From TrEMBL:
Domain GGDEF per the UniProt entry, residue ranges: 173-311
Lineage: Bacteria, Pseudomonadati, Pseudomonadota, Gammaproteobacteria, Oceanospirillales
Name of the protein in question: EAL domain-containing protein
Organism, scientific name: Halomonas kalidii
Domain of life: Bacteria
SMART domains: EAL (SM00052), GGDEF (SM00267), PAC (SM00086), PAS (SM00091)
Boundaries of every EAL domain copy: 320-574
Length: 583
């Protein structure tokens, strides 16, 4: 009885194990079992679902029926060596479904041995990883490629450039990086819309790809900026430069070809900066910066051009960056000063001054406005700097108005285009007048012609509002720009200022003399005042007076000086007690 009970229990245990094994076999993983010779004995439902093979179609066959053909014999040799040595193998493999579709799967193969260590079966599990591979590919695409053009992005470019730099150091062959920027892309993008701009970028990407070799790299860094990386350009710098220049010229020619964006025929051009690299100590960032600097040099040369980087260019840029940093600090530390140059009437009496910004650098000395003003205009400092000038000038103007002997003096202040175009320029100036107590009718703003070339209606509206406060306007450097009669007629100007470049040589150059005479006559016909700057001799003054000019400014009457150093006719003028706060 006891023996019979043990037999029943053993049989029940075996049946339970078989049921567990059967349940495990029908898992979410595909499974198949082969004999020792590799013939398939059994498959589960998931295997049949993944591969598309019914049991009767595959039982008795070798798993080689699933091979995709993507792997060579060496791959399978390594697989079976691992199974022989370790008893199992797992890894990614590409197989073929019954439909012929090739797909990726994760495969595990284990050898089953009997008590004597002989292989009796092989058990394999597999899973379809198509979706996972697609997700990985999408992540890789987003990480390393531009979503619009499909070109490599900055990250992939840096990776490839690092590899190319290492290879160049090993082989000694030169490579080149070209930084490409489209010259008038913003105009097209703003006027036709971003979708047309995207179409144009796709066209440009195709053109760049068509010209370069498959082994070269074309990347889009963003916006309308592209980079082309060439390698294996030869062992000599001159030879490499010639090859890079030829490729650059082809790229420029392809960029300028017209294209159709919808119904619109459009044309763009490009500026290209080129730098060579080889076995020197330059880093990837250095190389990209050099190409970028060369590109800006190409733009400065007139656009639709290419330019090679040279160390002197970098030295100039570093000097400019240093100057910009010092200028920011000077603005914060109050190292900027206002100088004043007197303006006189036909009798030589001082009628007012022009406020001129000066920068006394602790190491550089007095920095020329021709040096630091363009820097301020490029980096945006010109706006806060201009506001400081206006407030400081208005405080001085209010101080002069305190005495009857000086209340008649006017103050001319240059206002930059960016400053005047700021949406809050008018209310800011109104607040400055209110805070300082300056009389607006004694303030004269000097504007240049470039301001009237863009959005003239906004400019006219602001001028009219300020004119209503009593502020006057002078057109500075007249004759050096477009000098359109249209805006002279439409804008509420009070004075034309003859540029010193015409005044300086008018006694020797008939052309300059004719231009000055014409300006004076034009001003008289438009009922505008006219003032000549750059008057350096009595001969200049006398000639101008004979032509009808009644106001003068120049070294003949005084150089630009601090308020304490103004010439005798204005020496008794009071100095403002309060200095304008720094922006």
């Amino acid at each position: 009885m006891a023996e019979r009970q043990r037999e029943v229990a053993r049989r029940h245990g075996q049946e339970a194990q078989l049921r567990i094994a059967a349940m495990a076999f029908e898992t979410h993983l595909g499974m198949f079992v082969t004999d020792a010779e590799g013939r398939i004995l059994r498959t589960n439902a998931t295997f049949r679902q993944i591969t598309g093979y019914a049991a009767e179609e595959i039982v008795g066959h070798s798993p080689r029926i699933l091979n995709s053909g993507r792997h060579d014999d060496h791959f399978y040799q390594r697989m079976w060596c691992a199974i022989g040595d370790k008893g199992s193998w797992q890894g990614e493999i590409w197989n073929r479904r019954r439909s012929g579709e090739i797909y990726p799967q994760w495969l595990t193969i284990s050898a089953v041995k009997d008590d004597e260590g002989r292989i009796t079966n092989y058990v394999a599990t597999l899973s379809d990883i198509t979706e996972r591979k697609a997700a990985e590919e999408e992540i890789h695409q987003l990480a390393f490629y531009d979503p619009l053009t499909g070109l490599p992005n900055r990250r992939l470019l840096v990776d490839r450039l690092e590899s190319a730099l290492k290879e160049s150091r090993r082989s000694g062959e030169y490579g080149a990086v070209m930084f490409i920027d489209l010259d008038n892309f913003k105009t097209i993008n703003d006027s036709l819309g971003h979708h047309r701009g995207d179409e144009l970028l796709l066209i440009i990407a195709e053109r760049l790809t068509a010209i370069t070799r498959e082994t070269d790299t074309i990347a889009r860094l963003g916006g309308d900026e592209f980079v082309v990386m060439l390698h294996d350009l030869g062992l000599e710098a001159d030879e490499a430069a010639m090859v890079a220049e030829r490729v650059g010229e082809k790229l420029l020619a392809s960029l300028v070809e017209p294209c159709m964006l919808g119904e619109m025929r459009c044309q763009v051009s490009g500026s290209i900066g080129i730098t060579l690299f080889t076995d020197d100590q330059a880093t990837v960032n250095d190389i990209l910066q050099q190409a970028d600097l060369a590109m800006y040099q190409a733009k400065a040369a007139g656009r639709h051009a290419l330019c090679f980087f040279d160390p002197a260019m970098q030295a100039r840029v570093m000097e400019r960056a240093s100057l910009e940093a010092d200028l920011r600090q000077a603005l914060a530390d109050g190292l900027l000063r206002l100088f004043y140059q007197v303006q006189v009437d036909e009798e030589g009496q001082t009628t007012g001054v022009e406020a001129l910004l000066r920068w006394e650098h602790p190491e550089r000395g007095l920095v020329s406005p021709g040096v630091f003003i363009p820097v301020a205009e490029e980096n945006g400092l010109i706006v806060p700097m201009g506001l400081w000038v206006l407030e400081t000038a208005c405080r001085q103007l209010a101080a002069w108005a305190a005495l009857p002997a000086t209340e008649h003096l006017t103050m001319a202040v240059n206002v930059s285009r960016d400053q005047f175009r700021a949406p809050d320029f008018v209310p800011r100036l109104e607040r400055i007048l209110a805070v300082t107590g300056a009389r607006p009718e004694r303030l004269k703003l000097e504007l240049t012609e470039t301001l009237f070339l863009e959005d003239s209606e906004d400019t006219r509206d602001k001028m009219q509002r300020l004119k209503g406060l009593g502020i006057g306007f002078a057109l500075d450097d007249f004759g050096t720009g477009y000098s359109s009669l249209a805006y002279l007629k439409r804008l509420p100007l009070d004075q034309l200022k003859i540029d010193q470049s015409f005044v300086r040589d008018l006694l020797d150059d008939p052309t300059d003399a004719t231009i000055v005479t014409t300006i004076i006559t034009l001003a008289r016909s438009l009922e505008l005042e006219v003032i000549a700057e750059g008057v350096e001799s009595e001969e200049h003054r006398r000639w101008l007076a004979e032509q009808g000019c009644r106001a003068f400014q120049g070294y003949l009457f005084g150089r630009p000086v601090s308020v304490e150093e103004l010439p005798l006719t204005a020496r008794q003028l009071p100095v403002a007690d309060l200095e304008a706060p720094r922006p």
